[in-house]
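pasting for ref. prot 1 ->
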Amino acid sequence: AALTVRFLTRRFIGEYGDMEFIYSHHLTVDGREILFHIWDVPSSQQAEEGSSEEKRIQWADSFVLVYSICDRASFNILPLKIQFIKAAKEGQSQEKVPIVIVGNKRDLHHQRVVSSEEGRLLALSLDCGFYEVSAAE
């Protein structure tokens, strides 16, 4: 949620509840007006299986999966999530589904438990994009 709010408002808010939101946002990219719809799902709700998760996957055109560089568990669930997304989306089409892995909290390097190299290697092995960012900065 912090990363989504930072993208939408350019502000950082550190504490969020455990709620799911859909945001709409206009942005001009290369002279073209783009309308984003962002379905922000907290990690606790991402863990659920079944129709809710499938509904989210079918709704989306692309995916940004965010983990904390300070939380190994948030990183470790990514391969299964990505495999689930690819199976659901690419099974219907020959097109590659755009997926980006984002390591957040780069500013907390002293608490890091997941290296940048691990993130890059995971993204490479799963054919995804990769970035490390700090929503706070």
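and prot 2 ->
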Amino acid sequence: LAEAAGGCCCPGASHNKFAYNETGQVRIRAGLPIYECNSRCRCGADCPNRVVQKGIRYDLCIFRTGNGRGWGVRTLQRIRKNSFVMEYVGEIITSEEAERRGQVYDRQGATYLFDLDYVEDVYTVDAAHYGNISHFVNHS
């Protein structure tokens, strides 16, 4: 990781600190943004500062809960503390549109809305129509 930080990676937006350790675990304080290397970097796909973009790396299983709460997600293997598990994927919409859709979803008994309120409460991710296994975590 130190070698990568020395010459080819770009943690500049993170004040020259990588968010991950050498095993891909988050090492910065919760609530801080994470900046990963990307197509504008000189580093390659094997760069240790590309964790989220490599996608889900754990065996996960969607299951029907036994207590009537619907669907859930469980892991089929041990997940180390501070490890990336999955990205919440969906359509980015305005908070106003989220309010409108939320009323519809409430009548249907399901919602897949996740507010993006890091700086301002302006956008929401809606995983109802576009998403991955992560919407079962939020929903359940």
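Residues 7-54 form one domain.
The first helix runs from residue 2 to 7.
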